[in-house]
Amino acid sequence: MVKRRVHVAAAAIISRDSRRVLIARRPSNVDQGGLWEFPGGKLAPYETGFEALKRELHEELGVEIQRAQPLIRVHHEYPDKHILLDVWQILAFAGEPFGREGQAVRWVAMDELHSYPFPAANLPILRAVMLPTEYLISDEEEDDEVFLTKLGRALREDGIRLVQLRAKNLEPDAYLVRAEKALGLCREYDARLLLNGEPELLQSIDADGVHLTSERLMSLERRPLAESKWLSASTHDRVQLDQAARIGCDFVTLSPLRTTPSHPEVDPLGWHDFQQLVETAAMPVFALGGMTRHDANHARAVGAQGIASIRDFWK
Ligand SMILES: Nc1nc2c([nH]c(=O)n2[C@H]2C[C@H](O)[C@@H](COP(=O)(O)OP(=O)(O)OP(=O)(O)O)O2)c(=O)[nH]1
Ligand SMILES: [Mg+2]
């Protein structure tokens, strides 16, 4: 049987404070009926994704989309069809959303989303709506006070909300001390902290998750963390992206996009190859390697969640 290919445009309408997102319930008599969804629907012939998004949100919610930016594209095989969910984050709209077709519509807190049943294709979208556009990776720093000053600046002035504590220069005990301090500071800003290292670190420190090196990623048979924690990993190619999907990583970095002083010998991917790899990745992907905030919009446009960087945020 040749499967039907269905292209759907859907909307992530996120509240200004990033705490809540709008979801709707599919009527019980349609495909995936009774499950919750991001409002949207199939592209009509000759429509672009954005045109379909505008039309569907008018039909289903009674709102006029003014500005939107790509969030994530998800390919998923259902038994009867291949679906492409083309998800946009809505940046500006007019009107008050309501269930124009009689469907339930609800603003849901990000930390309540997991208690709503969604179609199987939606897992990567749920991750994407909870993640910011920028992922700060901390630099090697000898001194804890200098470290905390720089982290505090990035949280306060750059609005960073996702941090990876990377400190290969520290002994395990010193790493834990720094992680405890970093966690306290991140909590003040409602930012998430991931520890770069072994998953067992979370037994000592209740951080938000763990970031795996690509080498560690490739050595694992299964997800080493509870679902309630974030698992991210470094990837550089298709094989590693597939492995990240297999063990259930929540998101990844993909690098190097550009040549960097830290890895001058490695061939960069460039935007073209990066986009091709991201298109079929089964989770949000941050572009890494010579990235600055100014690259974030372009990264989004080619399908990434955003950018990860040390240098642009660590000052
Ligand atoms: N809108 C939307 N559809 C989703 C999501 N997740 C998911 O698997 N789907 C699937 C269910 C459907 O098979 C398809 C969307 O089709 P739809 O029924 O909403 O299409 P439509 O609004 O154009 O409705 P219709 O004219 O075909 O009745 O995508 C999601 O989060 N939002
Ligand atoms: Mg629909």
From TrEMBL:
InterPro entries referenced in this protein's UniProt entry, alphabetically: Aldolase_TIM, Mutator_MutT, MutT-like, MutY_C, NUDIX_hydrolase-like_dom_sf, NUDIX_hydrolase_CS, NUDIX_hydrolase_dom, ThiamineP_synth_sf
Gene Ontology BP terms: DNA repair; DNA replication; thiamine biosynthetic process
Keyword Metal-binding among UniProt keywords: yes
Every Nudix hydrolase domain range: 4-131
Class in the EC hierarchy, top level: hydrolase
Keywords: DNA damage, DNA repair, DNA replication, Hydrolase, Magnesium, Metal-binding, Mutator protein
Residues noted as binding 8-oxo-dGTP in the record, renumbered to the chain: R26, E37, F38, P39, G40, N122
Protein residues bound to Mg(2+): G40, E60
UniProt GO MF annotations: 8-oxo-7,8-dihydrodeoxyguanosine triphosphate pyrophosphatase activity; 8-oxo-7,8-dihydroguanosine triphosphate pyrophosphatase activity; 8-oxo-dGDP phosphatase activity; 8-oxo-GDP phosphatase activity; metal ion binding
E.C. number(s) listed in UniProt: 3.6.1.55
Superkingdom to which the source organism belongs: Bacteria
Cofactors: Mg(2+)
Catalyzed chemical reaction(s): 8-oxo-dGTP + H2O = 8-oxo-dGMP + diphosphate + H(+); 8-oxo-GTP + H2O = 8-oxo-GMP + diphosphate + H(+)
A Pfam family the protein falls into: TMP-TENI
Family, as annotated: Belongs to the Nudix hydrolase family.
Name used for this protein in its record: 8-oxo-dGTP diphosphatase
